[in-house]
Amino acid sequence: MGKLSLTKVLLFTLSLGVQGSTLAKQQNLQESDVTSEIKQMFELDQKMINEGLTDSQGSARRRERVLELVASNRIDSAEGFFYACIILQHTPKATGSDNYYASTSYENHLLAFYLCKQAYELNFEVAGWYAGAAMDRYLLSQGKSQRYGTHWRLNKKGDMYIHDPVDPHFSDAERAKLGIEPLVEIQATVQEENKKLKSAEAN
C-alpha cells in the first residue's frame, strides 16, 4: 500500500465523526485485536528508540500497517488512535535538506495530528499535546511556522535551545482546545532550560 494522499487523509477525518460516538461507548470494553496489534507495534517502536537501535525496514512496515488500518477504518479505540499517531510521528527525516524538520512523508504528520486529536476527544488526555506536536511537525517540515509551539531544539553548538518560529496569529484559546499550555508558558520553559544549560557550563 502506498502513502495516503491528502485526499485520503481528509476523507479519514470525515469518517472520525461517524466513528466517534460508537468508539466512546467501547472504551470500557475489552481491548480489541486491532488495539492489541497497534499497541505491540508501538511498544516495539519505543523499544527501538529507547535502546538506540535501527531497523528502518521494520519501522517502515509498522507505518505501512498503521496506514492500512487507517484506510480500512479498523482502529477502534482512543488508545489505538494514540499509538498509531506516535508510530507515524516517527517517520524518518529527509536527508540532504537544510530544513531540520524535513520529513520523508509530511503527510504522515498531518494524519498523526488527526489520529491524536481523535484520541484526545475520546478522553485520552495525553494525546492532546502529541496532536499539537504532530501539527507543528507537519508545518515545520514544510518550512512554515508552528502553531502550538511544541518544538524546540538545541543549536548546533549544543549550548542553547532554539524555540522554532510560532505563528503569532494562533491563539492560546486554540492551544487550550488540546490541553496545551499558553505560549508564554512554553517560552518560559525554554528560557528555564537555557538557564540550566548555562549553569551546567559554569560548573
From TrEMBL:
This is Uncharacterized protein. It comes from Pseudoalteromonas piscicida. The lineage of its organism: Bacteria, Pseudomonadati, Pseudomonadota, Gammaproteobacteria, Alteromonadales.
